[in-house]
Amino acid sequence: MAHLTTAAGVRLYYEHHRPAAGLPPRPAVIFSCAYCTIHENWRGQVAPLLAAGHAVVLWDLRAHGDSDVPIGPAPWTIDDV
After folding, report:
1. What does each C-alpha distance from 41 to 7, 36, 58, 76 come to in angstroms?
2. Does the predicted model carry a pTM greater than 0.70?
3. In the chain, count of helices (H) and strands (E)?
4. Virtual torsion, Cα 18, 65, 35, 62, nearest 10 deg
């Protein structure tokens, strides 16, 4: 699992899928989930886009999927997510 750490110290989960070598380069496609969903909602889109030569990024918002969740009694607000 890949994570990046924000300036606030929160670890966000992401996946970066690259197309096979030899395909003409195409724009990357980044799937951002809606509130209360996770990166897996976009899983079915990865293979067709890779086959067409696009790189694909899936990621999870704060407190969603494999990203960090709040610790302690003060949960994050929707603005934090």
Report:
1. 27, 11, 9, 23
2. yes
3. 1, 4
4. -90
